[in-house]
Write a structure and sequence with these properties.
By secondary structure, the chain is mainly beta. The protein contains 9 helices and 48 strands. Strands 39-40-43-41-45-46-47-48 form an 8-stranded mixed beta sheet, sandwiched between helices. Helix 7 links the parallel strand 46 and strand 47. Helix 5 packs across helix 6. It starts with 7 loop residues before the first helix and ends in an 8-residue tail after the last helix.
């Protein structure tokens, strides 16, 4: 069948331009706005690609597969002067995600062209840009970053600390091309195992045979080069190799280089292949080897690889490498006094590395302070789901002071996250001022979020609130302006106005508007929404955002059809499970394949309805079915009690784990008239080594895996179920076959179901045709299976 369209007003709203992403310059005097096409044509996604080593590669341009495209880069100064558009000439298909130079004066980015990815550099003041030499960039192994969110991976580029040169991943000159595959197989695909326990996740797009290995090695091999931006001279660094990252030391003298190598693996993606981490000088000579690691395909479930990991430069020292090593074999089930140790090695890298500290629980990251050699080190207790942050000095083993200590699910007491300062040399440190640091948080409360900015005295532990979002809208801190901590850049929105950037002077209250984005769908804005709270039968507090259709008057007594959209989350205790997240003061952006489009058809939508699974982390899924059914019943009972819902016309839906939840609810209850499940996993025997936060394998808890698999109860699914799935889903555990097999099972038992497979789509849906078709399918399913039957009080 051909693609379908929803009503014209929905098509127009989906086609409306998206607000850009913003990236602040390191000196905090301007930002670059990245304008992107959220829904490119399906022909872009339909370009041929290879599935190799856990990633998808477009061999034509030797780059990661593109599922989005960037159209414009606009630089907006914070002093109120006019914005500047970056000018790119030539046959650009899409711009790449930009990278600021440390001095904030230039932007570097890739440009997709028909024959490859070219390197461009732009002057941030004038917008004038130029192509650098005739280089072709290679982002296969080194891609990702912020741009991956847009489906346009960030080009593998690194500025030197003095902003004069660029380190770039390039396609080696004279490199052989990927050979066309013969349709006649050379032989069978063979794998063998003996004595190796590899209980890894069900990764997709892995290498399958020797031909795959050869293709991946050709496409991932790169030549690192150093480019003088002013003269455009190019200097090769080191030998050709499969480099995944390279980071410049704070003093600019050295490079920390990560490289994967053979042997490859058919069980895990490329990031877990055999790999080395080395320190180089700028001539490409190896100064020292930090790690030489084998294939990591025996990582314990919910564990970490053995050997050095989280290897990085210490940001507040000239050239010191810091890393972490597991002391428990990487296995969280083993009881030990300390799980990790922190190691370091300083220039000139001629001595043995030093053990700096042992960490009781799993190391979860470190942010380096600005004024001292100290850092904020965070550890995570898996058993308690607890997060503790310490102020530590790695040069003094006994130096440790607790700064934060709370459950990872504690929203109301969350102190926020330290503000980070990008310094003029490109290093990133915790913003420190006179012994204080600044904390930006969401400000969750029973009434909804009120984001804030605090100043914490590290000496006394006393916190001072500097700013908080007012009650008329929802604002968040984007950062400081320049080096002035009394001037904030904030994003500000309300129920009727989309988010816009402005500068706020805390000392005077003066505001300077930086952007002026308009409501993309004024005819659809204005529907009522509120955070609504209710209780489950076991006393657990629940909440959701209730949206009512435009023009609906509760006083009329009219009962509405309701669409409940949810995603289950796990909690260790009922108190944190019942906390309210989100806000009803923000702008409701109707976009993409959102469930909120049903508002236009007279439906109420209960969005983000909490479906907490509460209990011991080791056994909580024993009662998964009972808890989601109880949560769903509580939501319907509540909407019925406040006079909104016609309980005979309630539909449920969700994406991914929410799709799995939807099928579970239809299999184990008669609460819903219909359901919509998107890109879910329905047969847990296909994810036998764990799913979501489940810690047991299928063989350790076969009855649990069987019970939570709606596939096993397909004969009980009597309410109509719409199954939508990307035909090229690459998410761990949600292979497209999950929806295909559930559909066949329902069909085999005479149930009512519809299976929609979206060509070329991955776990989330990108193409304009796919998004519009998904919305049309959802609206038509609701109309067909939950017909309007208004009931008066």
């Amino acid at each position: 069948m051909s693609y379908r369209l929803p009503p014209d007003e929905i098509v127009a709203a989906i086609d409306a331009p998206n607000p850009p992403l913003s990236l602040t310059s390191p000196d905090r005097t301007r930002m670059v706005q990245v304008y992107f096409d959220a829904h490119p044509p399906v022909e872009m996604l339909a370009r041929p690609f290879l599935r190799l080593a856990g990633i998808r590669i477009d061999p034509t341009i030797n780059a990661r597969r593109r599922t989005g495209r960037i159209s414009d880069l606009i630089v907006v100064p914070f002093d109120g002067s006019s914005p500047v558009t970056v000018d790119v000439l030539g046959n650009a298909i899409s711009l790449g995600f930009p990278t600021w130079s440390p001095d904030g004066r230039q932007l570097a980015f890739g440009v997709d062209t028909p024959d490859g990815v070219r390197l461009w550099v732009a002057d941030a003041s004038t917008g004038q840009s130029r192509q650098i030499d005739d280089l072709l960039l290679n982002d296969v192994a080194g891609g990702g970053g912020v741009g991956g969110y847009l489906g346009v991976p960030e080009a593998p580029l690194r500025w030197s600390r003095d902003s004069r040169s660029l380190l770039a991943w390039t396609v080696p000159q004279g490199r052989s091309r990927v050979a066309p595959r013969s349709e006649v197989p050379a032989g069978p695909m063979v794998e063998e195992t003996e004595g190796k326990s590899s209980q890894m996740a069900t990764f997709q797009d892995l290498l399958r045979d020797e031909a795959d290995e050869m293709d991946f090695e050709i496409l991932a091999t790169t030549q690192l080069v150093s480019i003088d931006v002013a003269t455009r001279s190019v200097k090769p660094l080191g030998p050709e190799g499969m480099y995944t990252s390279a980071f410049v030391s704070p003093d600019g003298s050295s490079l920390l280089v990560n490289r994967i190598k053979r042997p490859f693996s058919h069980r895990v993606p490329y990031s877990l292949f055999a790999r080395t981490v080395e320190v180089w000088n700028w001539d490409g000579a190896v100064l020292t080897a930090i790690a030489d690691l084998p294939v990591s395909d025996e990582v314990p479930r919910q564990g970490v690889p053995t050997g050095p990991r989280s290897i990085s430069w210490q940001q507040n020292r000239p050239a010191t490498v810091v890393w972490v090593e597991a002391l428990d074999g990487g296995d969280p089930k083993i009881e030990v006094e300390h799980r990790d140790r922190v190691m370091s090695l300083a220039a000139p890298f001629s001595s043995a590395p030093d053990e700096r500290r042992r960490v009781e629980h799993r190391f979860a990251g470190i942010s380096w302070m600005e004024a001292t050699d100290e850092g904020l080190l965070t550890e995570y207790d898996r058993d308690r789901r607890w997060r503790t942050t310490w102020l530590v000095d790695l040069t003094r083993p006994d130096s440790r002071r607790k700064v934060f200590d709370l459950s990872v699910h504690e929203l109301y007491k969350d102190p926020g996250h330290p503000m980070i300062r990008a310094r003029s040399d490109g290093t990133r440190v915790v913003w420190e001022e006179d012994g204080h640091i600044f904390l930006s948080g969401e400000g969750a409360s029973p009434e909804g979020s009120r984001p804030f900015l605090d100043r914490l005295d590290l000496g006394t532990g006393v916190t001072e609130r500097l700013w908080q979002s007012d009650e008329d809208g929802l604002s968040r801190v984007s950062g400081f302006v320049g080096d002035d901590t009394s001037r904030l850049r904030i994003s500000r929105q309300s129920r009727t106005q989309p988010s816009n950037e402005e500068v706020l002077d805390l000392s005077t209250g003066d505001r300077v508007r930086l952007t002026d984005f308009k409501d993309p769908h004024p005819d659809l804005t204005g529907s009522h929404k509120e955070i609504t709270r209710y209780k489950r039968s076991d006393g657990v507090e629940l909440s959701a955002t209730l949206h009512l259709p435009p023009g609906y008057d509760r006083a009329s007594g009219q009962r509405l059809p309701v669409f409940i959209w949810a995603y289950p989350l796990d909690y260790s205790d009922p108190d944190t499970a019942g906390q309210v997240s989100g806000s009803d003061r923000n702008f409701t952006r109707l976009a993409g394949s959102s469930p909120l489009w049903l508002l236009t058809q007279g439906w109420a939508v209960l969005q983000d309805a909490t479906m907490p699974i509460v209990g011991d982390p080791d056994t909580m899924n024993d009662t998964f079915v009972e808890q989601v059914v109880d949560s769903a019943k509580a939501a319907i009972d509540h909407l019925d009690s406040i006079g909104v819902a016609d309980r005979d016309r309630v539909m449920v839906g969700g994406h991914s784990y929410g799709g799995f939840m939807t099928a579970t609810l239809l299999a184990h209850s008669d609460l819903f008239a219909a359901g919509i499940a998107r890109s879910g996993a329905y047969n847990r025997s296909l994810t036998p080594f764990g799913f979501q936060t489940e810690r047991r394998t299928l063989w350790e808890a076969p009855e649990v895996y069987a019970r939570v698999s709606p596939f096993n109860y397909a004969h009980q699914i009597r309410s109509p179920l719409l199954l939508i799935h990307g035909a090229a889903d690459n998410n761990t555990g949600t292979h497209t076959v999950q929806s295909e097999r559930l559909f066949q099972a329902i069909q085999g038992h005479g149930g009512t179901a519809r299976l929609v497979l979206l060509p070329a789509e991955e776990h989330g849906y990108r193409a304009r045709e796919s998004v519009l078709h998904t919305v049309a399918e959802m609206l038509e399913w609701a109309e067909r299976h939950v017909p309007p039957k208004p009931r008066q009080e």
